[in-house]
Amino acid sequence: MSALFRLTNRAVALQRSLMANQAAVVRAINTSPKKDETITAPTSLTTEDFANPSPKNWQSYGFDYKDQVEDRKATKSTFFFTVTLCLVWGTFYWAYLPDTQFRDWAQREGFLELRRREQAGVDLVSPNYVDPDSITLPSDEDLGDTEIII
User: According to its UniProt record, where is this protein mainly located (predicted)?
Assistant: First the structure.
């Protein structure tokens, strides 16, 4: 990804330098008497200009408003920690976490109990799971005309 970013930056810089050279070659004819409206050829760019760019158009990323180098360092380290460590490694850790609530264990125990009951010939779920004597049902007079859906 960073190689693609560097390649794009180089392509943009090359395109700008080509546009600057074309502007120097192509001159428009202007008949205006005003001196400010005429087209002037841009100054040629040297290797020193590319090596030491002027920070006059620098915009801060919000980490340091006075020092460009510190702002870029803080930006890169913040994005490294948030994207690489938190998102990538955090997702990896979360995906391979052990089963802390024992869901797999409970399901496995349920299947083992069902297999044991099938082999023993017993009902899978006992009809008397709750003792019928402990349940109090309302009488027919208490229910009245209440619709009962089973």
Answer: mitochondrion
Each of the 150 residues of the chain gets a pLDDT tens digit; together they read 556 556 566 666 667 766 666 555 555 665 666 665 556 666 666 777 667 666 667 788 899 888 888 999 999 999 999 998 899 999 999 899 888 888 889 999 999 999 999 999 999 988 888 888 999 988 888 888 888 888
CA pair distance 38, 34, nearest whole angstrom: 7
Q: Given its phi and psi angles, is residue 102 left (phi above 0), alpha (psi -120 to 50 degrees) or beta?
A: left
- Asked whether the beta carbons of 20 and 26 are under 8 A apart, the reply is no
CB 43 within 8 A of CB 35: no
Locate tokens 């002037």: which residue?
A: 40
Residue 39 CB partners (closer than 8 Å, separation 6+)? 23, 27, 28, 30
Q: What is the pTM of this model?
A: 0.34
Matching residue, tokens 């109090």: 136
CA distances from 137 to 66, 101, 126, 128, 133 (A): 79, 37, 20, 16, 10
